[in-house]
Amino acid sequence: MSKNLVIVESPAKAKTIEKFLGKDYTVKSCFGHIRDLVKKGHGVDIENNFKPTYEIQEDKIKIIEELKKLSKKSEMVWLASDEDREGEAISWHLSEVLELDPKKTKRIVFHEITKPAIEHAIKHPRGIDFNLVNAQQARRILDRLVGFELSPVLWKKVKTNLSAGRVQSVAVRLIVEREREIQQFKPETYFKVTGHFEINGIPVKAELNEKFKTEKEAVSFLEKIQSKDSFNILSVEKKPGKRSPSAPFTTSTLQQEASRKLGFSVSQTMLVAQRLYEAGKITYMRTDSVNLSETALKALKDVIGREFGNEYHQERQYKTKSKSAQEAHEAIRPTYPETKEIDGDANEKKLYELIWKRSVASQMKDAEIEKTIITIESGVSSLHFIATGEVVVFDGFLKLYEESTDDESDENSSGSGRLPKCKVGDIANWQEIQCIQRFTHHPPRYTEAGLVKKLEELGIGRPSTYAPTISTIQKRNYVEKASLNGTERSYYEWMVKKGGTIQKFEKKEITGADRNKLIPTDIGMMVNDFLVEYFPQILDYGFTAKVEDEFDEIANGNLEWVDMLKAFYKPFHKTVEKALDQSERVSGERLLGTDPASGKPVIARLGKYGPIVQIGSSEDEEKPKFASLRKDQRIETITLEEALELFKLPRVLGEFEGKEVRVNIGRFGPYILHDNVFTSLGKEDDPYSITLERCIELIELKRIKEKEKIIRIFKENPDWQILKGRWGPYVTDGKKNYKFPKNADPLKISLDELLKEIGAGNTENHRPDEKASIKKAKKTSATSSEIKEKKTAKKTVKKKKSTAKES
DNA sequence: CAGTGAGCGAGCTTCCGCTTGACTT
After folding, report:
1. A169 CA, B3 C1': separation in Å?
2. Rounded to whole angstroms, how far apart are CA atoms A71 and A76?
3. Quick check: helix, strand or coil at residue A289?
4. DSSP string computed for A371-398
5. What are A171-213's pLDDT values in tens digits?
6. pLDDT per residue over A559-574, tens digit each?
7. Which member of A305, A414, A420, A792 has the lowest number of beta carbons within 10 Å of its beta carbon?
8. Which among A284, A466, A534, A730 is annotated as catalytic?
9. Which nucleotide is nearest, taking the CA of residue A679 and each C1'?
10. Distance, angstroms, CA A576 to C1' B17?
11. Is A478 a catalytic residue?
12. Residue-wise pLDDT tens digits, A135-149
């Protein structure tokens, strides 16, 4: 047994540090927080100075037992959790739970996992910083109070099972407000003129310095210059410039770049990064620091010298911009920069390459650029054509890596290449002039990574919570990740060639299309409006920044944590009571107009199972008619026409084999109901226009598929069948499904044997019913269940492959 | 798996931040 026990947060970190420290040290991990406020109720005694009640988290009981045993046997326990607010609290909880003797306990910190950093830490231990611990307790308790007081208000006033919190509610607000801006946005049209010239024999594209507001102005300009033969060059300007590399990755910037360059979702990025980290290939992936260790700087310098030459190297140390950063770790970088490529699956390779390039580029020289601007007269005073060109004089870091931008419209960059040599007074011969009608764009919807960027700017959330927050607001059905198809609109284009006449064309384009963006749902908008109205201080974009300042004051010893909570809670709790007392239940009801057929009012509102439209009211003698909104429709924006369209379903198309064929939209999309059998419509089928013939085709297709599923029907009792399922053969009696016994042959086994094997009636062998599995999923946290789903999905694929090989 | 839409009431839900595990349908 070694004399020293070192406790860190992450097991991968423990492995590395153990190597640095040698045999006198045992290094263990506690897997993050070990104790939290009790799950039931507030866990905070408000009357008694906000005294918290903590309990050991269920999944940490085992590890705590082990750490307790080890700590008793050790001469010294080194608490080496992260050097930030949460890390300090973990050390304190550990010292309490493990009942550590202060004389035998030391607190050490390091913010990089390198040998010198660890050795330095061991030589400079300190005690637990209780100011920092209290700042964490204040943070934890405030979040609990906000979350557990706001959520029940929503259960009562909007819908059960909803949630609100300091972080998630502001995230939803950002998305809702952006969507409203988009709804209210009226595109304005303008007319852009581009000239194609020839200067000293080289073609040059130049754009007019002004955009016309009206077609009349634009055409009149074209008419004026149409007769001109050539234009003079008014000025030639050369401007040197430089571009600098971006800082190495933090969690947030990694998520953004992986989204732009690799198309990863934020949770996918974190999943892959976690694997790279566990394999020892990159440093810690949940960080807000852009700092690089001395070891890393040296290794990166060597790599640059070898790959590109020393003239490409420039040592740089970056500073974190975000105020809320706690910088307990390094930036995300390759553990061994000399490793350019790694083994692993395709995604691991791609993400590693991105991290490698970004890290290496961050230590490279600026790129030197020469920008040239040529101004060409237009024949109309104050208007002229401008051509810009950019030449890279020294490529520097651009040799390796360039950050992407979210800006999709690159049509404004009129030129980027080299321009011909020319001087003032030279002639620009024009070839053709083009005028194109354009429209202003609405502000863009948030992508997942874009939302993370915005949250980080506002100081809301932490590297470890960006991905879970995004999945929470989707799970609560406040927002959804969706794509929009857009609509067609027409625009005009004019073209005049030298010596020719002006020609006008009508063209078409798709507008309003969007891919994988966050869009608020009806529930999201209603909950947001309610929260903004009754809890404006919590929903304020500056709320987190304000309380963070106070947490800092606590950490610095200038503010008592209990005083801070008292000052916050009293007014906050009053707003909660006021909301419970004074607010109406939210129904989201909106009158759309009058039904021309019945003369009754048509309303859109939130029904028990989601958004609906309704004709007539429940007080009428005749029962009202209901229809669910389609997934892409919103209560806030649906029109009377669209609502009436929804009542055209279900459609009865006629008969097939003497039974009615009915088309409707259900929970799982459009379907056909015939003879009590449901058949899904294909992707290309529209339930409003599908014909009887096509329905019959689909019904027959389904029958064939059903038949293909059957492996065997038992003659003695045809209710019992062996079928082909997603996970191999399974047994059914028409009501319940059973697992097929592992080593049996489905074609030979007798029914008696089979019944014995599966132990029909024995519940253990049943597939778990829906409710049980939902409960199970709910127990685990948002991310872990997501990961679980993905892992299962992967295994399914594997299994499929292997069964295919066997057969 | 494919329905429903009133109202009541029992018993439940819920926060943010640290970290990674282990089902066999």
Report:
1. 32
2. 8
3. coil
4. EEEEEEE-SSTT-EEEEEEEEEEE-GGG
5. 999 999 999 999 999 999 999 999 999 999 999 999 999 999 9
6. 999 999 999 999 999 9
7. A792
8. A284
9. B2
10. 25
11. no
12. 999 999 999 999 999
